Amino acid sequence: AQSVTQPDIHITVSEGASLELRCNYSYGATPYLFWYVQSPGQGLQLLLKYFSGDTLVQGIKGFEAEFKRSQSSFNLRKPSVHWSDAAEYFCAGGGTFGNEKLTFGTGTRLTIIP
Amino acid sequence: EPEVTQTPSHQVTQMGQEVILRCVPISNHLYFYWYRQILGQKVEFLVSFYNNEISEKSEIFDDQFSVERPDGSNFTLKIRSTKLEDSAMYFCASVGGGGQPQHFGDGTRLSIL
Predict the structure, then answer these.
(1) Cα distance from A100 to chain B (closest Cα, Å)?
(2) Per-residue pLDDT tens over the stretch A64-111
(3) Exposed e or buried b for every residue in B54-63, given b needs 16+ CB within 10 A?
(4) Domain B5-112: which CATH class?
(5) Residue-range domain boundaries for chain B
């Protein structure tokens, strides 16, 4: 069965520090992969997507993610976090044709400390 | 930038009542979805809709649920007889075609009393 795993439930980092949020997927073939961010009480905003090609993808708000087929991973990174990055981050897989349902991970809650 | 809009933002309903959640997808999009997120849990797929019919549904989407695209702009989710466990945030999403990311609305928080 298709699955997306986010091993870290909660991460706390200092403002200005680097960030890496982990995501692993299990699909029969390489799926489309996405990172979404959700601020409290808000909807899901797309940060970035991977469909094919370059394994390092750039997104909005200074985020990037690296697709590693050998590790079935799609980790999200940011070199220097800002207090406004505090939110819930969801990794999602979207099948192999791009219009299938999304399977979400359980999310990682990011807390930023001064 | 075009947005997916959902109404209402918060719906409070008595158990056993019918509720209709409304969504206006992005105008040229072809695929439509409903997801739900129970408080503190992950986002779960409910149903996908294409070419005026359901293309896939999850085990959550039982006979109490239905979807409809009554005109060229709206996409609705109906829960016929609500239960306490239907309390959740419901998200609508749409996508233009294969290889495009899904765009989500801000959600409707459904509270069943």
Answers:
(1) 8
(2) 999 999 999 999 999 999 999 999 999 999 866 667 889 999 999 999
(3) eeebbebbee
(4) mainly beta
(5) 5-112
